[in-house]
Amino acid sequence: MTDILTLVFRTFTSQTDGSEELTGPPTSPATCSALLVGDAGLSRSVLLLAAVTAASEVGVRVVFFTQTRIQSLPPCLQKRKILFSYPRTMEELLQQVARLHEPTNTSPAPPSLIVVDGLEGFLCERGAGLAGFHPGEQSVQAAHLSALLCDSAAFLTRVLRSRSPGADPCRVVASFQSPGDGGRAGGEASAADPTLEVLDRYFRVRCTLDRAGSYEAAAGGLHEVWDIYLSGTGMADASDTT
Amino acid sequence: MRSFLPAVAEQLFRDIQKTHQETSQIPDDLLIALKFVFGSCALQALDLVDHHSVTCLSSPSGRKAFQVIGGSGRLYTCFASCHYCPCPAFAYSVLRRNDGLLQQGLRQKRTKRLVDLYKKRPSWKHTMCTAA
């Protein structure tokens, strides 16, 4: 997944003098699952760009799960290779992810990228404000969904490689915003969030999107500056193998 | 620091599988190694294997999952390629306390993979989302 994210950042960001050339580790099992944390609006945009990049530049099928319906898409984005799905609840999302292995979803080609926008929206619905809410319930839900996503991706990888031995693995990317995450620096964001700790078990790479806190004026307009951090056990494992 | 324990465990499972295929037995030294890596839960896991409490479900697409009957009689479904179990022990020991390399249900699933004693069900009508 880091390969697609790296391609997105390289393509859609402007690199100023002194900035490093964007590079990422090669695709490997360690880097196939990534979690975007930080600003919800930016995460959604990055996920959409990742879906478009995967479908157009890499040429793979994408399944995009989100609770918020996309009102309109430019014609260039209305590709059959991207399937948008709008589950309203956690149960619906689980059902739809669980069915990705069925022939209707693997023909003519199985998806190679699974995107889930706004995990927090699916996880919060059951417990928030209800009597008898167990603080650990959200963590358990997070583990269940994450494990299902990873298991589905592993199965789809086997299908992809059975049809084409050199095929890249199926990737998973999701976004998550911890409560009260807005405005904090990337390094300390959500450090004590138990749900995020659970998600880190399954998503080997974490991509933190952090507003740098200052605006860079450029000829013709104002530009926001964002810092992007790639971290997690997947990055360390990928480095060990290179 | 990168953990090598998962790789050690995987190699141990490969050794046990190879030995069992050749001799239909698992020697004591490998069982001791299993207990060393996974702790005392390894014995309870093997006990459930002996009682045929693990079933491999397969779907027409080829996807597999494992169902484990826990000590309480409840049925739990584990994924074939990912560490997760819907039982309370996993939620408490693994997710909350971060104890143990694997929770017992997952150890049982891994052990079943070795000894090929599970019951195979050719049709799979459960969906993954009903595992919990």
Automatic annotation (TrEMBL), chain A:
One of its GO terms (cellular component) is Shu complex. It comes from Gasterosteus aculeatus aculeatus (three-spined stickleback). GO terms for molecular function: single-stranded DNA binding. GO terms for biological process: double-strand break repair via homologous recombination. This is SWIM-type zinc finger 7 associated protein 1.
TrEMBL record, chain B:
It comes from the Eukaryota. This is Zinc finger, SWIM-type containing 7. GO terms for cellular component: Shu complex. GO terms for biological process: double-strand break repair via homologous recombination.
